[in-house]
Design a protein that fits this description.
Order of helices and strands: HHHHEHEEHE
Shape: elongated
Helix content: 25-40%
Number of helices: 6
Number of strands: 4
Structural class: alpha+beta
CATH topology of the largest domain: Alpha-Beta Plaits
Low-confidence stretches: none
CATH superfamily of the largest domain: ACT domain
Oligomer: single chain
């Protein structure tokens, strides 16, 4: 899972990455109500914001978040979801919501919202553990708050 991530100094990245974060902050802090207003204020297009919003995280979001949203495919076999939930619980995470689709081609799409404030490991370590759980495929971190 973590092989898909890089840590890069902001100074070598295009400025619109920082602006995507600025839009997110404006929305989260309630300084603006609409995405259109926020992107105009920071000087990027809506399409730029939507293209990158789910792929840019600040290090503080990865380490000290309180809630995390994960998306994955689970093989439709007895015990896969249970093993996943046990792995989360054993590391101090707590499941807030579970959304699971009906299995198609023996796989179900699952979205988990977790309370990670009491975790004893980092988010990166949790993703690594969950990604190695038998029956878990295409694990993605969607958001951290």
């Amino acid at each position: 899972m973590l092989e898909n991530y890089l840590i890069i100094h902001k100074s070598i990245l295009p400025d619109y990455y920082d602006k995507v974060l600025a839009v997110r902050h404006l929305l989260e802090e309630g300084k603006v109500r609409e995405i259109s207003q926020a992107v105009r204020q920071v000087g990027i297009s809506r399409s730029t914001y939507y293209k990158y919003k789910d792929f840019i995280l600040e290090p503080s979001e990865m380490a000290n978040g309180r809630k995390a949203v994960l998306s994955m495919l689970l093989v439709h076999e007895t015990g896969v979801l249970s093993a996943l939930l046990t792995a989360i619980s054993e590391r101090g995470g707590s499941v807030l919501t579970i959304n699971q689709s009906v299995p198609i081609h023996n796989k179900a799409a699952v979205t988990l919202t977790l309370d990670v404030s009491g975790m004893q490991i980092t988010m990166a370590q949790l993703l690594d553990v969950l990604g190695r759980t038998p029956g878990v495929e295409n694990l993605r971190l969607i958001a951290v708050e």
